[in-house]
Request: fold
Amino acid sequence: MGDYAYAAPTSLEEALSVLEAQANDGQRTQILAGGTDVLVQMRSIDKEPRTLVDIKHIAETNALSIGADEIFIGAAIPSAALNENDELKGLLPGLIEAADLIGSTQIQGRATIGGNLCNSSPAGDTIPALVVVSAVCVIASPGGSREVAVGDFVTGVGENCLESNEILVGLKIPRPGNNSADAYLRFIPRTEMDIAVAGAAVALTLDEGGTCTSARVAIGAVAPTVLLVEAASAALVGTKVDDDALNAAAAACSDAASPITDKRGTVEYRTKVVGVLCKRAGGIARDRASS
Amino acid sequence: MAEAHDLKVIGTRPVRPDGVEKVTGRANFGADLHLPGMIHGKVLRSPYAHARIKSVDVSGALAMEGVLAAVCRSDFPEETDDLGRNVIARDKVLYHGHAVAAVAATTPLLAEQALDAIKVDYDVLEPVLSIDQAIADGATLVNEEMHTNGDASQPASNVAAITKFERGDAEKGFAEADVVVEGEYRVPMAHQGYIEPHACTATINEEGKITVWCSTQGHFDVRTQTAAILGTSISKVKVIASEIGGGFGGKLSVYLEPLAVKLSELSNRPVRMVMNREEVFRATGPTSATWCKAKVGAKKDGTITAATAWLAYEAGAFPGAPVGPGCMSVLAPYDLENFSIEGLDVLVNKPKVAAYRAPGAPQAMHAMECAIDDLARELGMDPIDLRLKNAADEGTQAPYGPKFPAIGLKACLEAAKAHPNYTSPVPEGCGRGVACGFWFNIGMQSSAEVLIREDGTVIINEGSPDIGGSRASMCLMAAETLGIPYERINAHVADTESTGYCNMTGGSRTTFATGMAVVQACEDIIAQCKERAAMTWDIDADQVDWDDGQAVPKPGVNADVDPLSLADIARAWGRTGGPILGRASVNAQGAGAGFSVNWTDLAVDRETGKVDVKAYTAIQDAGRAIHPAYVEGQMQGGAAQGLGWALNEEYIYDDNGVMENAGFLDYRVPVASDLPMIDTQIVEVPNPTHPYGVRGVGETPITAPLAATSNAVCDALGFRVSELPMSPPRLLEAIDSQEG
Amino acid sequence: MSKLHVTTSVNGQPEEVLCEPHQSLLDVLRDELGLTGTKEGCSTGDCGACSVTLDGRLVCSCLVLAAEAEGKEVGTIEGVANPDGLHVLQQKFLEHAALQCGICTPGFIVAAKVLLERDPNPDETTIRYWLAGNLCRCTGYDKIIRAVQDAATELAHEA
Reply:
């Protein structure tokens, strides 16, 4: 068994070379952003010592930019900081809300969207929200940089396509237009602090008459990874996103879900509730897009 | 006894004497002690719910660098009791998490890594994981030597004991009833959920003198239990109680202390042991899961003619479920001629249950108060009116035998009926549910010493660990008795060598019994002061009164003298016989029962099954509220625990008997945003046996909320869900199957 | 395992500690710096008893490595009272009997102080959601919320 070690590189280059050097020494490495998943797992289900590579001191992972066409959110920015940015909240209310739902005020002081995505839990709150706004992962590799659509990033329960010598730098998101909006809702048994039992994100665009011209619907905590539900989107496009359309979208979500029964919920419960959440999130997204 | 309007400080709300230390972080709790050379202990716990231990080999751990001691069953006297068998497993492990060995090392991480080097050979056995399994024909036996009620003529059983209370003829009573209602109810295993994990530090010297610092509700019991498990005498053990971060009954037994002492002995270093949260859930003492049946019959006018209850409680690995108190409580609010109560103490392969605030009562009263609620509905009667019609009162014979002296149930019911939160209509979309609560409260033994300083200020030494502000109450009672300002008094929880014997802080006995001792010790002081004054004035002691903190000659006594205050007398004590100290010890009799009425308004989201608690009101008879804010606090805290248990808290076990939700993430206690303000009203029907009329208040508050919440959900949905917790998946399933 | 040398600042005082890479800020505050006012309730970030501020942000110190405090300002319960006396929040907690056993109290005070610095006039819902990460098992939260509301009112008067 190796030992624990800690490194705090101050550039992407340095970070990549630390990863490589540790690997050459046969030492396991793990990227550390907010630490709210890593430190918990390190003490319980995964006690193997490793070198923690802290990416919070790198300019690119802390970058936040809102451009005419594109928004970039660095992987190391804590949720609390994102929630203090009114412009960002106005453009991506669903995503920022999702980030705000992770844990408590204390957790939000540390937790990052990047970390939530890389933890790749089926129930990660930001992931359905990232999928519906068509986020793209910007990844730093030894060979250069590469991009992966967020829907392709998570590959299984707790698994993603990042190699051990790569770093998620941040998320690139197309800037939503004026009549577009997103929303994310999750179900938890209490009012705070719980892992999502089911989650649904909806992003849609309305034309001037209030008819939906495009929609993306993603559901979380009801399958090994987040599911983009094409049939739910189809149920909304071309409608005014009224109750009938929302009910159809909800039914499509329930059909698409393939959850498990565990200590947080049963198959039947999650299947039903994800539909309810889709309906409610769809309504919120529609109201936001209209205003 | 003084009337309320005569009291000067009792009933006021001063700042508690330990308050500044607590809000600044200075107060020392169980894990806050740091001794030079201290090392860290960790426990190896069973990975199986039920297995025979063939061998334990700690040599691998001892060989590791930094590991200074390791212990297993062979390091403890073989002859022991269930507590000793729980502290470290002997021939069998009886629950997942049962302690099997322990090590001490120079860092916590090294100690933890050393556990992996301990080799234990298990013969895995089938676990028994529910009452249903335990009482089935051919069930695996948790203890092959256990016979129900010790009757060896019957086959061995998982039912350790059966308790019965009966009066009259229940069957005849049901036959006379116009309406009979019955139900079957399940309440899950729950944990007290104190925020501070168990922690202790132990040292032992070459003479075998042991010192233990620990977070506990009863340090005299820690002394007794530790000495017994180690096979040493209590004269060798000194226990210092730290501040305690919550107990609720779960810190009445030792878990770590004997292990820490033994590790200290073998390493010759002080040893600190602290549980992590997972260990607290898996391996301390949650309360019993239960399966209860309740049946009640009444005439059209609401007079109850008969009631029966069958109460089966999981004891965990060793006998001792609180089914007795459950049997005592289940029908306590009612004046009945005919009833029959049967309680079962059932062994299962789960942790040995410990007391949890009114142990046994919440589960039993949930069953009966739900049945009474259904009865009210069937009769078309208001649930409070139905209870008023049958309420126990002074002179009623309690189901467990004694006649109640003056009690406050009717006063609480009447106050509830008149309360604006009850007379107001149920908010749109909500349901409202009512229930009664009860706890008998206990007395037991306490000692107190009162020391006067030369300036007339006062020190109280007593032995009741302070779990909720009791030192403030001691100072208030002393201030009232002595007639001096509250600010001139300080109270300490002294260690086992520095104060007289005291039973544990539990059973809602502290303000009652330790308070009684404090009052009597102050009366001892007053008697001595009168003698000193008499000496000073050259009159007889029986010619002196104590009035408003001063010695004065009785009216009519010929003595032209100024009054002498406590300070005056102290200043001159050298001339009148020396320093002044007072003492008292009690075996307090006449603990008064505490009744309550609670109700809640809540809404159920029919699409998700989620409950939103909009309002909660608790009314309780405190006898006399010494410090009303701390009485209110007990009412609110118990309500919150009850709401959590009713709506979300439960131990979830897999088929191997492993708890799946051993953490605060998935063992869901209420958070601040889950609850509304909890309105309270204190009723005072003084308890005549206490100098100030005190009744215990700590436990009654958790006994009504389970049923109040269940009844509110029933009112909201139009049908009853009889299994707790009423978590969203359970409610949604019930809603869907009603509508389907 | 070789130790790390961490230079940080706690309650305005410069501090240097040697710690192991895996050690949490909570462990180091309590065991190396002797600041035991910050409590350990769960080590999984679910109870808030270990709440501190890190560069002014409210965090769980059990989920911060001591190494991550390098160059940062840590605020603990020991730094809440000022030389003149208790902070208004501490005073209000005492007046409202907003503590029974007191183990959660340091975490609540640190958390509530950050809230009132950001939002001097929070409504009840805001207070409850802000403090949802701080568990209390004794009080049912009622008197804690009232103490925070009263402190907000008093701080507004002082301002």
